[in-house]
Amino acid sequence: MKRSVTSRLKLTLICSLCAISVSVQSIEVQQGVVYPSGTRVESAQLGAAFTIPEGWQGAWPSGSEFFLLESRHLQANLFMMFDEVDQQQLLQIMSQSIPLDSGIQLIPNKQPITKNGIIAAPYTVKGSPTPLNAYVAGRELRQGLSVAIVALSQPQNRDDKNIEVNQITTELVKNIESRKPVIQNSGTTDQGPNAWQTYLRGRYIARYYTGSGYSEKQELWLCSDGSFYSSFNSGGYSMGGASGAAQSGGQGRWHAKGSINSAGTLVLQFGAGKISQGSTPGFDWQETSAGGERWTYELTLTDKLYLNNKKWLRGNNEYCQ
User: Distance between CA 68 and CA 252 in Å, rounded?
Assistant: First the structure.
């Protein structure tokens, strides 16, 4: 389950939705499984457990580092994320713009408020093709590990529904249980000769695609010191003869989880200053993002290396060791 920041999110009703019962047996969370309301899920490796609220369903999407909860009635999604930061660091993160995928950013409407150990604030969603309300709540679960939930919901004609989404988010953060993490055995450790971390350390990998007048090339340099560099180039032309090109590049920190004997996870945490640029007939553009994006890939290895079920080629790393 994702540890990340750049990705963060009664009274009787609330208590009935999120109250934790010691008599409920927890289920070890698995990727790609949809859990109905009332299910208590846990990650033994992470050391955290919680109950799916009434009227919601949840899943850990394959290849991602967040747990997703959905309510069709409230037209809302909750993105639960864990990261190795303390309460003060979490407050700093939530006080700034929070980058999400696909160019979407959360801009705080006001400074986050801390109450009973929970940090919370409303946000404006920038870059979304449809209007969305945003609310984030989080807390330090135990020393050095924090949880945050990003709530995104469709604007409602009734304010009480928006308030309910925020209340459920806050209560869910409050009721997440911290447990002693279970150390992985040698077959699934992130270190050792069969670890994905070992396999990818110091490698250069690339993906190519060509078809219907369009081509793209994506490259990753995974350095042994935990840093990485990325490059993406694409171009194409239309039947009318118009052409266009785009490229982007960035750098940051990487790590991989799991053993090459099974599916693993590659995490790229971008730093500041990711640059994108492109050109089309009569128009050139360039932008530098604030950075902080976190990309996650599912890793599989057969005769070839696959990231999110797409084949990548391995080559000589002439950029770093």
Answer: 25
pLDDT digits (tens, 9 = 90+) for 152-170: 998 876 677 889 999 999 9
String of DSSP letters for 65-101: SSEEEEETTTTEEEEEEEES--HHHHHHHHTS-EE-G
Domain count, the chain: 2
Could you tell me how far CA 237 lies from the centroid of its own chain? 33
Identify the burial level of 122 via C-beta atoms within 10 angstroms of its C-beta, where 0-12 means exposed, 13-18 middle and 19 or more buried: middle
Domain interval for residue 292: 196-315
CA angle 309, 313, 314 (to 5 degrees): 125
Quick one: CA dihedral 193, 198, 203, 207, positive or negative?
Answer: positive
CA distances from 238 to 219, 278, 285, 296 (A): 25, 16, 19, 32
pLDDT exceeding 90 applies to what percent of the chain?
Answer: 43
- Prediction pTM value: 0.57
From the number of C-beta atoms within 10 Å of its C-beta (0-12, 13-18, 19+), residue 315 rates as exposed
Residue 186 located in a structural domain: no
Q: Say whether both 164 and 46 belong to one domain.
A: yes
Q: Are residues 213 and 138 in the same domain?
A: no
If asked whether residues 26 and 95 sit together in one domain, one would say yes
Give the residue, 107 or 192, on which the prediction is more confident: 107
Q: Both 161 and 49 in a single domain?
A: yes
**Same domain as 137, residue 103:** yes
